[in-house]
Amino acid sequence: MKDQYLNREKLFAVAPMIDWTDRHCRTLHRQFTRHALLYTEMVVADAAIHGKRERILGFSPEEQPVALQLGGSEPVKLAAAARIGEAMGYKEINLNVGCPSDRVQSGAFGACLMQTPAIVAACVDAMKQTVAIPVTVKCRIGVDDQDTQVALDELADAVFRAGSDALWVHARKAWLKGLSPKENREIPPLDYDRVYRLKRQNPNQFIGINGGIQSLDEAVQHLNHVDGVMLGRAAYQDPMLLMDVDSRIYASAVTPPSIETVIDRMCAYADAHIAGGGRLSHVTRHMVGMFHGAAGARRWRQILSTEANRTDAPSAVIRYAYDMVRNAPAAEAA
Q1: Does 92 reside within a domain?
Q2: pLDDT in the model for residue 331
């Protein structure tokens, strides 16, 4: 990862999403792309330091490359959490400066930190002094009534002076007052040009873009202007769009696995998870969006949303749901 950032090679990532990008989600996404950078959900520094480490931070080598996103505003704690993340094998530490939820506002971190670039810089510096892997920041273009022309420049200048290896920018403002986290992902207007200008002002720094990107076609267009592109909900809700990432973004000639192979691998993964005390639904909830728009997709969703949620559901439910897709008449596309 460090070389990619230093050389400003084009990079595709799946965004960190709370309650979504857990280890089961990342295992699914990794079936479709070997090269995309995958992110954890945001982990608060205190949880990383004091929580049950394997449950909170555990992942399998097959998920790599994986970046750990941390939340917090105290340099010492973030440095300690970053050290733990590096020791566990994460390829990058990312600081959340974009989440607008009530939880982060009460803790004065996340998007709140857009208002205090010096604190963000101190956090980056502390982590850079502690770990050898890349330290990056993910932010918004501003919060509330901030002038985005000023706020984003001030934050970028501060974090790059502190040694940040990359800045990922969600191209919307965050409104800390008046909008819910869901509304903050949809209502503030997108301003991709603002991120493009930031890149032009910082030609020797890695700038990535996020927010409202719906397809690989759009991702490729953004990469004409910035170094990295990050998809969130679009990749989660239609994970099979990731099948073309390696060829289109990374020019890989390796053929992606067949859908049958993906189903086999996810069944084996679910079997191991169930044998360890987990439930099938922990895995299948991330698979519901597969076959988006294809014949049999509605039946696939129904089965995974009902039968897979039984406490004793076996991995055979996945195969049964897939049989509904394979055998569906073309007229049932939905």
Answers
A1: yes
A2: 57
